[in-house]
Design brief:
Blueprint lengths: L8 H36 L13 H8 L1 H32 L5 H9 L6 H11 L8 H13 L9 E2 L6 E2 L5 E6 L5 E6 L21 E7 L22 E6 L2 E7 L5 E4 L4 E6 L19 H26 L3 H9 L4 H12 L1 H16 L3 H6 L5 H4 L2 H9 L6 H28 L3
Parallel strand pairs: 4-5
Antiparallel strand pairs: 1-4, 2-3, 3-9, 5-8, 6-7, 6-9
Protein name: ABC transporter permease subunit
Membrane topology: Multi-pass membrane protein
InterPro entries: MetI-like, MetI-like_sf, UgpAE/MalFG_permease
Length: 431
């Protein structure tokens, strides 16, 4: 039996040299594009804004002392806690559902399509979607439509009683007038509206007759001038106004004015007529999606819209490799689809879900463009994240690259644990 010959030391050196020659370009690029910027950022973070005065850890102390930086740190924590989990969960649901419908391929294409759009274009799109004006913002247009369907009350924003000679304006914005039965009617003349602002159904003002408290709510603006506090020719009633009748501090009856502005409370000879403040409130205009309270959830929603397709495709690939025998055995044993999903599908997909989740954590830590494009200037600080704050401090007017470098180093330190976890997952995964 012949013993295999070992390569000589010279041949081994040549092989190592050849391997190093092939690796050298990649190592040079890695050093120039990754290692050198990281090292220089660490060094630069120890100097002041001009780069001439050594401040040590002063920039890091400034990061934790500035309210804007603390807000960015808090928002980044919200992003990490919410966005990756939602993207992973929605991607899982989409991946499972697309296996059970015949048009699953078309659905995958539609869900994945936002990945083909740049973040800049997606940010501009969602900036329009979140517009406060229902005439422009899609979400508020839908919200106003739903609200008006369930609450179709007509409002007259800006309407008010005459300062003198009219009913009393209450501190809560309601209008009150004393009422009585018999021939005397309660006149509620209002001003502050243009005649062309009335609904098309508004008819000439007329006072109903009969027993009980009755009256008319009308716009006391006559084309020919007229007499204040009296119904003149051409003055129209205000239809759809909610009118309440109070007896002391108790509401005893409620009605709505007719097209001519008239109302009547039959069977109530006396009482105080009240027009609630809601009659004069501005119409419902939706939510301030880009206001200080909702801007961060709104931007997270845009992020989920973009990345849910990515998560769905990765999870669908893992789902296709699951052993079908366990699923069929569970069905034969009488397990329901929810039980199969919760106790078999999800545990077997745990490695894939972990990779998607950790990848999204790394991604949201670096989120910048969506926040920069969607958030308006007045609320940009309320929605700021670490990457955006880094840019603003360094190049967006702050011109303090020492503080910006400190923010960059802090961001790197926060991302490194997630990167290490992801690398360990890849090493443990079967090849």
């Amino acid at each position: 039996m012949t013993t295999p010959r070992r390569p000589s030391s010279g041949a081994a050196l040549r092989r190592r040299g050849l391997a190093l020659a092939f690796l050298l370009p990649a190592l040079a690029l890695l050093g120039a594009l990754v290692l050198y910027p990281i090292g220089w950022s660490v060094v630069r973070s120890l100097f002041d804004a001009d780069g001439t005065g050594f401040v040590g850890l002063g920039n890091y102390q400034a990061v934790l002392a500035d309210d804007a930086n603390l807000t960015a740190l808090r928002n980044s924590a919200i992003w990490v806690a919410v966005a990756p989990a939602l993207v992973t969960a929605i991607g899982l649901v989409f991946a499972v559902l697309t296996e059970k419908v015949r048009w699953g391929t078309a659905f995958k294409l539609l869900v994945f399509m936002p990945m083909a759009i740049s973040f800049l274009a997606a940010g501009i799109t969602f900036r329009l979607v979140y517009e406060q004006d229902p005439q422009r913002g899609v979400l508020n247009a839908a919200a106003v439509a739903v609200h008006d369907t369930f609450d179709p009350e007509v409002g007259y924003p800006g309407a008010r009683p005459r300062p003198t000679g009219g009913p009393a304006l209450q501190p809560d914005g309601s209008v009150r007038a004393e009422g009585g039965g018999g021939p005397a009617a309660v006149l509620v003349p209002l001003v502050g509206l243009k005649p062309d602002a009335l609904p098309a159904t508004a008819a000439p003002a007329a006072t109903p007759s009969g027993d009980g408290v009755h009256g008319v709510v009308y716009l006391d603006v006559s084309p020919g001038g007229g007499t204040p506090g009296r119904i003149d020719a051409g003055e129209r009633g205000l239809p759809g106004v909610r009118v309440e009748l109070h007896d002391g501090g108790r509401t005893v009856a409620t009605t709505v004015t007719a097209d001519d502005g008239g109302f009547r409370f039959a069977g109530h000879p006396t009482g105080t007529v009240s027009l609630p403040a809601g009659n004069f409130a501005a119409p419902y205009r939706g939510l301030a999606w880009l206001g200080p309270g909702l801007v961060t959830p709104a931007i997270i929603g845009a992020y989920i819209w973009i990345w849910a397709g990515f998560a769905m495709v990765i999870i669908a690939g893992g789902l296709a490799n699951l052993p079908r025998e366990t699923l069929e055995a569970a069905r034969m044993d009488g397990a329901g689809e929810w039980q199969i999903f919760r106790r078999i599908t999800v545990p077997q997909l745990a490695p894939v879900l972990g990779v998607v989740f950790v990848t999204m954590v790394i991604n949201v830590m670096k989120i910048f463009d969506l926040v920069f494009v969607i958030a308006p200037g007045p609320v940009q600080q309320d929605s700021g994240v670490l990457a955006l704050r880094l840019w603003l401090v360094s190049f967006g007017g702050g011109n303090d690259q020492g503080l910006g470098s400190a923010l960059g180093v802090l961001l790197l330190l926060l991302v490194v644990p997630a990167m290490v976890l992801n690398i360990r997952r890849f090493r443990r995964s079967p090849r």
